[in-house]
Amino acid sequence: MGLPAVLPMPDISAATNHRPVSHLRGRAVATSSRPGERLSQSPPTRFEALVLPHLDAAYTLARYLMRDTHDAEDATQEAMLKALRNVDQCRGDDARPWLLAIVRNTCHTHLRRRGAGRGDVSFDEDLHTADDDARRPDTALIRAADAEAVRRALDALPLGFREVVVLRELQGLSYREIAEVAEVPVGTVMSRLARARDRLEQLLSGIRGKEGPG
What we know:
With about 210 residues, the chain is mainly α. The chain has two domains: about 20-115, Rna Polymerase Sigma Factor, Chain: A; about 125-210, Winged helix-like DNA-binding domain superfamily/Winged helix DNA-binding domain (Arc Repressor Mutant, subunit A, Orthogonal Bundle). The protein has ten helices and no strands. It is globular and about 50 Å long. The relative contact order is 0.14.
């Protein structure tokens, strides 16, 4: 049996980022990490047309991977600079998966440098089977949760689970696109996403239990 369609969730992609990203838009095409260098020296047309419209998506992914708004801004800025310099490597008319792969790799590099994210998948996926799905809480719990509760639950997920949930549920990427972004097989994406949804529902149930009835 295949996985269900994109899980209904509150619209949290923008509401829970906490910081506007409009100021990053100008910086993405006007500055670089090298003092005195201006990215406008590179042809901006293709970048502005294909990549820049996905700045919000890039920041949303960075926000959930880094779990810190300032770190997310830095990672997004760095990723956008990389995207501009390598925009000719983008194939096709949809640059979002390509850009999100750059964002994901940039965030993972930052996390490795500060020693975060190691052993972040909290259990061995191979020890869990499809039978676990029969014991999953009702997905209506996620639909009923408010945006802040979902954000808190997402932040509590291990990194490997967090990224597939964000890429699927918030960004709407296909399993194949997620596999390309996360550099793992499609089967791993499907397994990890099932485990992540299960864990997310458990976390939301715990949050609701602590807060009591509304």
